[in-house]
Amino acid sequence: MKKTMSAVPMIVVLVVSMVLCAVMPRPAQAHRVRLFAWVENGMVHAKGGFGGKKVAKHCALKAFDDTHTMIFQGQTDDTGCCQFKVPDGYQGDMHLELDAGPGHKGLWTVAAQELQTGAATPAEEIAHRHENFDTDADPIRLMIGIGAIFSLALIGRALKKQHKKRTLRA
C-alpha cells in the first residue's frame, strides 16, 4: 500500500503562516501618520492625517531648514490643516515634521524650487500627489499574503486528496 502525504504538514504550514502574520511587526494603518504639503501664493499649506479618512487634529507641526534649524512651529486645526507664510528670502528645501504623539511622526519635504516660485502648484500635480498619498505597499504584508494564499492552496489540495482517497475506499 502506497503512503500518501497526510494533511499534518499542510496544517503545520498554515499554523506557521498564521503565527508569522500575528508576530511580524508592522505599523497599524490607523496610526501611520501621513503629511502632505504644498506651496500656494507664498504660503505653505500642510495637511496631516492617519490611514483612511481620519485627520490629525491639534498636532504639532514644525518646519526646519537644511541645517535642521526650526523656522516655524504651529499646530494643525480641526481639519488636520496648518498654513504659514514662507519666510522672506528663504532659500533651500523646507522639511516639515508632524508630531501626532509618541512614535507617530509624519515627514514631508517641500522643494526649494516650489518655495522660491511662490506661485500656486498646478492643480493636476497636487491632485496626483494626493492620489498617491496613501498607496505605499508594505513588502512584508505582501509576502505574508502570498504565503497565506499558497498555504490555503496546499491545504485545499491535501483535503481534496484525502476526500478522493476516502471515496475510493467506500
Write the layout of secondary structure elements.
Blueprint: H1 8-23, E1 34-40, E2 43-49, E3 60-64, E4 70-75, E5 81-85, E6 94-99, E7 105-110, H2 112-117, H3 123-131, H4 139-169
Antiparallel strand pairs: 1-2, 2-5, 3-4, 3-6, 6-7
Helix pairs in contact: 1-4
Q: Remind me, CATH topology of the domain at 34-134?
A: Immunoglobulin-like
Please identify the top-level CATH class of the domain at 34-134. Answer: Mainly Beta
Number of helices: 4
Largest sheet: 4 strands, antiparallel
Spatial gap, N to C terminus: 16 Å
- Strand % is 15-25%
What is the number of E strands? Answer: 7
Helix content: 25-40%
Which CATH architecture of the domain at 34-134?
Answer: Sandwich
What does this structure look like?
- The chain has helices at 8-23, 112-117, 123-131, 139-169, and strands at 34-40, 43-49, 60-64, 70-75, 81-85, 94-99, 105-110.
- It is of the alpha+beta class.
- Strand 6 (94-99) and strand 7 form a beta hairpin.
- Helix 1 runs antiparallel to helix 4 (139-169).
- It is rod-shaped.
- The two termini are 16 Å apart.
- The relative contact order is 0.18.
Summarize this structure briefly:
This protein has 170 residues and is an alpha+beta fold.
Name its key features.
4 helices; Immunoglobulin-like; 170 residues; alpha+beta
